[in-house]
């Protein structure tokens, strides 16, 4: 097997906050004396164990000692950075051995709280209009769109729907203007979430209610998207599991009710 790649890398370019990216001088002060932090020309910061003590003495570490020091460095980065800067989130990439290879700071994705009807973006198997939630991040020319909808999963021999479920389509779009993401799109990718609510529903209405709850689950958990807004970046679904509210047959979900005739359900 290939050894774990080092150094660990923090992508400062993904932090859309004032005073970022930080300078080499700032990282020299922030990093402990037993590690090095080197700001690269592309703005990323590379961390590794420092073999030179503050008094200038060089230390020789064997493989086992070096491994322990690097594990300590990884723990320090993954705990200290979020604690020092709770306004940003960290996503950890791992290689095939499960070892940490990269730490990327990603922006805080937020929504205006609206959950709106959005037509039939998933196609002909949709059983009702989708419930849409949109996420943006300060300073990031990108948008994340979630459409949760009822879908036909089983038909009888005559082709009539007999079973439905709720699922979501997540579209990641890098664009030049977040007010017009479709018209200014430069890159996009789509994922489908079909596992969040695997229960079958007997009617399109019940599945639509479940889709509404699914949209609310995404709306209320915006901080778990692991995308930094860059075109081509891996956008593996990274939202924490959310259990839908308890339901009774034929009843509306608890919490925010589905509007009977309106287009928007705010918080």
Helical stretch tally: 3
Poorly predicted regions: 90-95, 236-267
Strands in their spatial order, largest beta sheet:
6-7-8-9-10
The counted number of beta strands is: 10
What is the averaged pLDDT score? 75
Structural class: alpha+beta
Number of domains: 2
Beta-strand fraction estimate: 25-35%
H-E string: EHEEHEEEEEEEH
Quick structural summary:
The chain is an alpha+beta fold. It has helices at 24-30, 63-84, 204-219, and strands at 8-10, 35-39, 45-49, 89-94, 100-106, 116-117, 131-135, 142-155, 161-175, 185-193.
Fold blueprint:
Blueprint: E1 8-10, H1 24-30, E2 35-39, E3 45-49, H2 63-84, E4 89-94, E5 100-106, E6 116-117, E7 131-135, E8 142-155, E9 161-175, E10 185-193, H3 204-219
Antiparallel strand pairs: 1-3, 2-3, 4-5, 6-7, 7-8, 8-9, 9-10
Task: Describe the model.
With about 270 residues, the chain is α+β, with helices and mostly antiparallel strands. The protein folds into 2 domains: about 10-105, no CATH class; about 110-265, no CATH class. It has helices at about 25-30, 65-85, 205-220; strands at about 10, 35-40, 45-50, 90-95, 100-105, 115, 130-135, 140-155, 160-175, 185-195. The termini are far apart.
